[in-house]
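BUG: 3D viewer hangs when loading the predicted structure for this chain

Environment: internal workstation, default settings.
Expected: structure renders.
Actual: progress bar stalls at 90%.

Input used:
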Amino acid sequence: MQAHEHTGTGDAGTAHGGGTGDTDAVDAGTTAREWWEARYAAGDGIWSGRVNAVLAAVAPTLPRGAGRALDLGCGEGGDVVWLAEQGWTATGVDLSDTAVERGRRAAAAAGVGERTSFVAADVATWAPDGDGRFDLVTASFLQSWPVEIPRAAILHRATGLVAEGGHLLVTAHAAPPHADLPEAFRTYRFPSPEEDLASLRLDDGWEVVVAEGRPRSATGPDGERHDTVDSVVLVRRRAI
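Structure tokens produced before the viewer hung:
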């Protein structure tokens, strides 16, 4: 899924696990998997392939260094490939078979195929094999339109995939990513950092590292710059 740039430095959009679609309409009964697969299959590539700026800023600061990482709604794999290039063993999960195959090809082209894996699956139900905990779980622009996903439930479920001492990073559009949006999208409810933090439903075993809005300048489909803001939530599971 993963919405990646139209918006700003690196990849970003509204997606997965979403993106700003090119049409206001969707057939009744269309699932998120069907919509995203059709969108990816309609062209050679949707996103820039660059890492999300927030992830690029946060990952090098994590005290454990490079370990096992999971990208929920990986899209065409830009973040997964970047993490592998930084030494992480990275897994990407996305609804779209087409997006996942592009991620595999991008990883191979970058020479990091052995440190990456991609899975076509619904992040609302997917569970990893074996040791199912990761040092870093990231969900970048996990917002889907026009077909909704159970985003709050997915974010809460993601907390169970974080290892002791590991981190969960949630980056979201907290405002329209650019001015030229379809009319129907203007009614989309963008989450605040406080709302995303509440969706995680953390207990005392967690530490909130960051929960803030970060203003930035984005580029719309017409090439014009637009001021927007991202919601950034970074939490750490305490080591026992």
